[in-house]
Amino acid sequence: MATGKSNRGCELPRFNRRNRCYPLMLVLGVWVLFLWLGSGSGYAQNYFQGPDSGSVSGGVPVSTEEFLGKGQPSGNPRVMPPHTQGEQDYLPDGLNQFWAPPQVQPIVVIDPSARASRFNEANQLAPGLYKSFTGLDMTNSIPPDPHIAVGPNHIIVAVNTQFAIYDKAGNRLAVFNADSWFNNLAPNLNPFDPQVIYDHFSGRWVQVWVGGDLTTEAFFLISVSDDDNPFGNWCNYALPGNQNGSTPTTNWNDFPKLGYDSLAIYLTANMFRFAGGYDYPKLRIIAKDDLYDSNCGPVGWVDFWNLRDPVNLQTSPTAIPVPNITYTPTDTSYMVGDSPFQTGTFVTLWKIIDPVGNPTLEAVNLPVSSRRAPPNANQLGGGSPLIETGGRRFRTAPVYRDGELWAVHSVAGGFNNAFSFIRYLRIQPSGNKVLEEVIYGSDGFWYFYPTLMLDRQKNVYVGFSRSSLNEYAGAWYTGRRASDPPGLAPSQVLQSGKGNYVVTFGGSRNRWGDYQGIALDPVNEQVWLLLEYAAAPFNRWGTWIGDLTYKHIAHGQVLASDTGLPLEGVKFELLESGMKRVTDSTGTFQFGSPEDTVHLSFSRFAYRDTTVEVVLSPNPPDSLQIALLPELRSTLSGQLTDSLTGQGIVAVLQFFAQGDPTGGPFAVDTTDSNGNFSVNTIIGTYDITIDPVSPYPYSE
Question: Per DSSP, which regions of 212-340 are E strands?
């Protein structure tokens, strides 16, 4: 077994620390001084252990055909681990030996949409929404931990205990129970914490879950498709999580993170002792040549464990480094980890060098602005405990493209750091430089569980959850075009929160999750989100899928042609995608499209339905104005009588648009003594309320 030493790039035996090479004699001198000061043990200069290798003899084939047409059990309510220990505390700032000014000055962007404005000073645009449809609804588990992957023709979404296959039109084609799916490996594995990718380099789908009894055994449960069609044959593997290489341990793998490049699959996890308590983070490298064997043959891996801060050598509490998703082939892959201290003054960039040859690690701390962990989130209607915002830790895969690495997480922000904000970092790994640091949010709002993606043009997409004292926790998104200055555009709602959310299943934590999902479409210039929101009526989570693009963006306003006033509540549909929205109080709407020509339909009670064709410009945004003509009017006459005697009844009649009792009434009339009425109103279908004189009951 090797330790975290590296001779890479040195002519003589040398020791690598903080990206510098020191002659062996000098290192020994420093080491003796370290011991003389009474500050260390034998680990004083080593910030990881490994590598060590392990393997399993093979996997077990499984096919979607075994489950199609069969009911999927939901099981008993489950609280995903860790349900008692929680996340570890940050270390005191006094232990931090790395203090340096940030490499760039942070840019703080106050979200204009939180102030009811659609534009910021830089006129930045959020990506346009092209498709929008429901994801998986609340299962028997909390939290949901939603994740998404997109292939040429399909989408896979996963939440704890379930995954589903969709087509890109939004049709849910099949739902699979994770317990049943992995049952061919062993019974009662209780899979949780799903991660799923579509490997665009190899045309394969890969799922990773955690399973086992977590008292004597634990596994990375891996499922790999045989091609780019998720229907058909897969291989299931159970890779022991309670091993470092081939050596058994007494800990288990939680908070898994999944990354990949052209060469390998990368898994990281926080390792917790079976008996309770936290040990350390671990990295597992799996070469694709083994994993993508369609015969479910042997699979090997290489482990690095006990990952520590390269300067502050204390064990890092749950500051797990998250491996990247790579879109530019490279022989070095990257991970980003948060500072383990109460005040985060740096992030750690890890480099995985020669991952499928002679793998080794390097790590360097990058100075950023000082930030505390975000507080938990309040919501409309309050409630206790507050919604957990997940701390300052990175939770979704950084994205590597064209020599740059982009990562996002949550930090404290606003007045007295009372709110949760988003921070994204743009990093140049080759130079160990932070190129951009942007902090985004608004006083009075909590922004949490962000996730980030880049498209081929390096436009940035960010999804997140948002709540305030005036809104339930909903699903939101923002972004920035590659041509924009550093910053983020006004946020847009993907799915608004529908109810108050306090769900503990008898515990003490109101958990929102461990991460949220985002994926780049391998076919076109679109990015897909899978985000959580508080569903109706209350104490339920739901997930929502959105398809975003920066190719074409249009916004506009719907007006009444007779008055020129904005129309709220107009139903708007983008016919090419089926995406449906409703205009707000200012009559505005927005959408995106990867296609040059689209057709839009608009409908609202009391106005004539309208369909228009729009040819979109190559340089967004397009600005549209839609005028709706009032509907024609007609006279409706009738009589209200007693069904037994035939005598007329005096009553007040109110005419509402069908299915919308809040949008009227459009007409009111009182019958005469014979029960006759006659109203002149808009042509349409109505719900009628009847308030008769005594002794007749009120009716609808």
Answer: 219-225, 233-240, 243-244, 247-248, 251-260, 264-273, 278-287, 299-305, 322-323, 325-326, 332-338
